[in-house]
Design the sequence.
C-alpha cells in the first residue's frame, strides 16, 4: 500500500472539487434511493388514477362492507393487481434485457432475442386454440403452456450453443435465437390458421401483451420464479462488466466465464419466461429501460442492473396507466403503448450508434 | 523461474468434419523471474495460444503450466488473476466505460463476490493510471481514446491487478512509431522499477531487441530456440523463422541489436 499512498499524494493532476468522483458505494446508494423512490411513487399513484376517480380513504374504510364499497372494489380488484403485475413484469423484463445485452455483448439484444418469448407464445397459442386443461401447480392452463414453451425454447438454444465445447458461443446463441424466433412464429401462424375466429382474436390479444391479469393468483404464481431469477442476478453484475469486454478479458481478470454465462443465460431466461407467462410478450421494455438508465447513471452493471429493475417497474406501470386512460373508456393493449414509445427509441439508438 | 510450461500441447477443436488444428506441441519453456521475455515467431506459430495457456485462460490438453511450481489448473481462476494479468492485442468493450471504470475492473480478482471497490482500490487504480501517463484521461470514455491511449489504459487496468507476471499480446501492433516507442519504454520501466515479470508476444523484432532480455523463438507450435536476446537473435535464426534474409547488428546510436530485412530467401 505504500507505493499507492505516495503516488496518490504526489499525483500530478490537481482534482477540482467538481471532478471528485463519488465512490461506487455512494453512487449505488443514491441510485437505489432515487430509482426506488420513482418506482414506489408510480406504483402508489397509478391505482388512484383511472376513468373513475376513487377516494383512497373510502377504499381503505373498513367500516363499509367490501360488497358495497365500490372504491375498494376498483382499487383492490380492478387496479392494484394490474399495477403489481406491471411492476413485476417491467422489472423482470428490464433486468433480463440488461443481462442479455452484456452477456451477448450486444447493446441491441432484448429479452426476446434468444427465442424465449416465441417459445412461450407458441405454448400459449396451443393452449388457447386447442384448449385442454394442463394446469401446472399454481399456474392456469395458458401460463403453464407458455412456461413450457419458453423452457423448450431455452433448452434448444442452450443445447445448440454449448454443443461444441464447454463454453457458450455467443454468436451461435444469437443465430439460434433468431432462427428459433422465426421458426416458432411460423408455427404460431400455422396454429392460428387452424383456429376459429374467436380463438384467433383471443390469441392475438395475448400476443399484444396485457396486464389485466384478473386477480392476484397469477401474480402469486409467477412471483417465486421472478424472485429466483433476481437472486441469481445478484451474483452477476461485476461479471457482466467484464464479460462485456470479451470472454478472454473476463477470464484473465478472474471470472469463471462458463459459469457466469450459464447463470446469466438461465436467470434471464427464467425472468423472461415468468414475465411472458403472466402478461404476454410485452415488447421494448427490455431495451428502452436499460438504455435510458445507462444515459442517466453510466454503464457500470453494478448500478445499471438494480436501477433497471426499479425503473422497469415504474416504466411499465406508467405505460399501462397511459394504456388505460389515453382513449378511455377503450383500453389500448399495453404492448402497443410500449411499442409506440420503444420503436422510435430503438431507431434513435441505431442512428446514434451508426 | 516463475512461470513454466512442462511438455504442454494444445489443439483447437473445430466443427465436426473439419480437421482439429494443433496449435502447440510439446512446449517446455521457463520465464525467468523479473525478465522481460519476448515471444517471437511467424503468424500462426502459437504465440497467442501459448500466452493464453500461460494466463490459465486455456488449459493444456497435456502437460502442465505452473506458477512457482504450482499448477495453474489446480488454482481457482480468481487466484490466478491476482498474480497474472493479461494485456490482449485489442480490447473492445460494448458499453461506454470511463477510463477509471476500465482500470478499476483490474481490481476484480482482489474483491469478494459481493464486494465493491473501496478507497484503497481507487488509489491503486489511480496510481496505475499515473504510471502509464493516463491519469488525465480518467473521466473520458475509453471508446473515444486513440489507439495508443487505449493500449496504455489497458496496461493500467492490468497493473491495477497488482500482478507478479504481465502477459502482453502484441502490445505495439497497430500503433504508430511514436506510440510504439512510448509503450516499449513504459514496459521497460515497469519491468525494472516494479520488477514485474513480463512476457510479450510481438512481430516487431526491433522492439523485442530493444527491450527484451530473453527471447523465445517459436515456429509451427514448437520452440525453436530460447535464451538471452543477444545469443538467439541472429540472422540465421531470422532466416529459419521467417524465411527472410536479414542484417542483424548492434546499432551504435540505439545501443541494441537491430534487424533489417534485406530479402526473401529464394
Sequence:
Amino acid at each position: 500500500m505504500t507505493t499507492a499512498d505516495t503516488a496518490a499524494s504526489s499525483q500530478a493532476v490537481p482534482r477540482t472539487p467538481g471532478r471528485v468522483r463519488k465512490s461506487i458505494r455512494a453512487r449505488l446508494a443514491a441510485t437505489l434511493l432515487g430509482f426506488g423512490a420513482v418506482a414506489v411513487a408510480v406504483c402508489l399513484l397509478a391505482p388512484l388514477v383511472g376513468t373513475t376517480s376513487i377516494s383512497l380513504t373510502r377504499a381503505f374504510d373498513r367500516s363499509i362492507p367490501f360488497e358495497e364499497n365500490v372504491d375498494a372494489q376498483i382499487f383492490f380488484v380492478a387496479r392494484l393487481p394490474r399495477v403489481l403485475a406491471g411492476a413485476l413484469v417491467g422489472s423482470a423484463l428490464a433486468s433480463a434485457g440488461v443481462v442479455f445485452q452484456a452477456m451477448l455483448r450486444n447493446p441491441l439484444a432484448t429479452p426476446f432475442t434468444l427465442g424465449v418469448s416465441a417459445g412461450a407464445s407458441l405454448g400459449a397459442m396451443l393452449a388457447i386454440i386447442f384448449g385442454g386443461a394442463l394446469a401446472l401447480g399454481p399456474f392456469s392452463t395458458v401460463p403453464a403452456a407458455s412456461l413450457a414453451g419458453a423452457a423448450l425454447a431455452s433448452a434448444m438454444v442452450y443445447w445448440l450453443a454449448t454443443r461444441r465445447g464447454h463454453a457458450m458461443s455467443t454468436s451461435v446463441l444469437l443465430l439460434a435465437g433468431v432462427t428459433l424466433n422465426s421458426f416458432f412464429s411460423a408455427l404460431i401462424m400455422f396454429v392460428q390458421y387452424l383456429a376459429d375466429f374467436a380463438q384467433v382474436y383471443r390469441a392475438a390479444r395475448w400476443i399484444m401483451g396485457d396486464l389485466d391479469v384478473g386477480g392476484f393468483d397469477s401474480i402469486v404464481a409467477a412471483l417465486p420464479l421472478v424472485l429466483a431469477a433476481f437472486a441469481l442476478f445478484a451474483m452477476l453484475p461485476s461479471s457482466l462488466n467484464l464479460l462485456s469486454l470479451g470472454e478472454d478479458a473476463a477470464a484473465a481478470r478472474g471470472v469463471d466465464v462458463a459459469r457466469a454465462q450459464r447463470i446469466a443465460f438461465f436467470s434471464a431466461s427464467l425472468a423472461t419466461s415468468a414475465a411472458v407467462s403472466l402478461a404476454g410478450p410485452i415488447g421494448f421494455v427490455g431495451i428502452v429501460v436499460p438504455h435510458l438508465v445507462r444515459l442517466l447513471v453510466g454503464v457500470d452493471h453494478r448500478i445499471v442492473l438494480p436501477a433497471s429493475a426499479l425503473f422497469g417497474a415504474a416504466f411499465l406501470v406508467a405505460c399501462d396507466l397511459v394504456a388505460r386512460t389515453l382513449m378511455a373508456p377503450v383500453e389500448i393493449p399495453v404492448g402497443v403503448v410500449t411499442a409506440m414509445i420503444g420503436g422510435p427509441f430503438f431507431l434513435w439508438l441505431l442512428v446514434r450508434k451508426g | 523461474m516463475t512461470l513454466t510450461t512442462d511438455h504442454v500441447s494444445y489443439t483447437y477443436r473445430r466443427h465436426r468434419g473439419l480437421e482439429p488444428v494443433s496449435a502447440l506441441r510439446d512446449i517446455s519453456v521457463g520465464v525467468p523471474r523479473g525478465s522481460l521475455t519476448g515471444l517471437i515467431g511467424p503468424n500462426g506459430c502459437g504465440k497467442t495460444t501459448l500466452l493464453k495457456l500461460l494466463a490459465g485462460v486455456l488449459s493444456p490438453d497435456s502437460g502442465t503450466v505452473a506458477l512457482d511450481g504450482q499448477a495453474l489448473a489446480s488454482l481457482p481462476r480468481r487466484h490466478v488473476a491476482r498474480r497474472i494479468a493479461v494485456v490482449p492485442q485489442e480490447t473492445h468493450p460494448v458499453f461506454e466505460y470511463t477510463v477509471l471504470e476500465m482500470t478499476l475492473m483490474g481490481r476484480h480478482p482482489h474483491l469478494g463476490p459481493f464486494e465493491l471497490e473501496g478507497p484503497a482500490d481507487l488509489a491503486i487504480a489511480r496510481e496505475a493510471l499515473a504510471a502509464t501517463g493516463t491519469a488525465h484521461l480518467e473521466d473520458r470514455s475509453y471508446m473515444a481514446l486513440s489507439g495508443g491511449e487505449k493500449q496504455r489504459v489497458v496496461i493500467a487496468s492490468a497493473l491495477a491487478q497488482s500482478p507478479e507476471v504481465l502477459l502482453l499480446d502484441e502490445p505495439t501492433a497497430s500503433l504508430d512509431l511514436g506510440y510504439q516507442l512510448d509503450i516499449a519504454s513504459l514496459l521497460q520501466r515497469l519491468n525494472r522499477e516494479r520488477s514485474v515479470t513480463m512476457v510479450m508476444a510481438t512481430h516487431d523484432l526491433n522492439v523485442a531487441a530493444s527491450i527484451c532480455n530473453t527471447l523465445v523463438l517459436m515456429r509451427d507450435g514448437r520452440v525453436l530456440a530460447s535464451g538471452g536476446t543477444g545469443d538467439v537473435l541472429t540472422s540465421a535464426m531470422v532466416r529459419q523463422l521467417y524465411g527472410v534474409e536479414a542484417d542483424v547488428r548492434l546499432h551504435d546510436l540505439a545501443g541494441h541489436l537491430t534487424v533489417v530485412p534485406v530479402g526473401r530467401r529464394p
User: Anything to note?
Assistant: Chain B has a mean pLDDT of 91. The CA atoms of residues 122 and 177 of chain B lie 32 Å apart. The first helix of chain B runs from residue 47 to 55.
